[in-house]
Amino acid sequence: MKVKVGLRENSASIALAEVSGFSRENGTLGEMYEVISESDLSILLISDAAQAENKERIFEAMRPGSTLGLSHGFLLGYLKNIGEYFPSNINVIAVCPKGMGPSVRRLYEQGKEINGAGINSSFAIARDLNGKATDYALGWAIAIGSPTIFHTTLESEYKSDIFGERGILLGAIHGIVESLYRWFMSHAYSPEEAYVYSVESITGPISKIISQHGIVAVYESLEKTDRETFKKAYLAAYHPVMEILREIYDEVTSGNEIRSAIAASNRHKNYPLSKIDGTSMWQTGIQIRANRNSNRIPIHPVTAGIYIATMMAQVNLLKEKGHSYSEIANESIIEAVDSLNPYMHHKGIAFMVDNCSITARIGARKWAPRFDYILSQQTFNALDSHFSVDEYVFKEFLTDEIHQVLAVCSQLRPPIAISVTE
């Protein structure tokens, strides 16, 4: 099998491809549409907005009977918005890794030495002309070193993925820690303490416990008094964050969020996205990470309660909307604690928001302030006053089926943690 890289003329990535051994001389490097026209399988890894902008040329370049490979279902969502679908003469498959491109590569390289190292992926078949599309997708997943693969549909994938990155994976966690930082500061904590109790608590011990022992284990790790504080924070946050999550899901399923992302990408051609890590909070984080003792990061029960309430609200909403448990667990929990949060712990949540995909960056920046505002407006006011707790909601948390799902998933967990050395 020959693997060939197709790039735009004068692409800055040409030199990088050549360093990795691809070249025009040996037939492994060429212009994008030229490569598509001669390929049996074209894996489309350009940005979501670029896929929407260039879809006609891409479809025209594909040979009848060839296969289009997608790493995300955004293009399907865009086609639905304009009343179109994929050409009828090609296979359409997807393999969607649950993490960033650098994670896929580093775990693949680790897998050369450690059996089972790799990142989770979902796969989907949008069109199967010859009865072999599933084989193609599974082969592709194995080829990128994905040891655990679960089936979904392309529509379910793009809905849960776009929703998830605006929810607990990026947008929500960003809004949560920004609001928590200010709340701790308003309660006489120092900037350093506020950062540790908000950001470090989530990306460090909370994520580690969820990854290794499950969600309820965070609650069970607390002392009795802290458990009561956790419970109060959980119940003060659950309904407010569910309100925002429902709005996000509606915006994704209606196509509005896809239209918004494309419009924002067009605006950013003239007004590039600025970085968000220059505020005092994130500058404090630089010093905290430089002097960190990972064994001494505390779990604050308010932080844990709010974060887990948001995670559980996302789980329950996806369940209500008919998503499979494999997808729910990966898009709401596993991708967070095993893929994205370790990067956030390594370089900060702001760094992640500044360096993820364009669609995710746009979504996180758009929705993080909504989480920030509703927590500040409702949750923290409730915490600082007396409110009636909803015992039924907390009982549902303790007995939710997602805990059994995670117990099964833990048996498939890769033998090593994600590499974040760069």
Q: Strand share of the residues?
A: 5-15%
Point out poorly predicted stretches: none
Radius of gyration (Å) = 22 Å
The count of DSSP E runs of length 2 or more, i.e. the number of strands, is 7
Key phrases:
single chain, 422 residues, alpha/beta, Rossmann fold, N-(1-d-carboxylethyl)-l-norvaline Dehydrogenase, domain 2, 2 domains, five-stranded mixed sheet, two-stranded parallel ribbon, 19 helices, 7 strands, 62% helix
Q: Could you explain the architecture of this structure?
A:
The protein has 422 residues and is α/β, with parallel strands linked by helices. The protein folds into two domains: 5-153, Rossmann fold; 162-410, Orthogonal Bundle (N-(1-d-carboxylethyl)-l-norvaline Dehydrogenase, domain 2). It has 19 helices and seven strands. The strands form two sheets. The chain has a five-stranded mixed sheet with strand order 3-4-5-6-7, covered by helices on one side. Helix 1 (13-19) links the parallel strand 1 and strand 2 (29-31). Helix 14 (301-320) runs antiparallel to helix 15. The longest helix has 30 residues, at 224-253. The protein is globular. The mean pLDDT is 93.
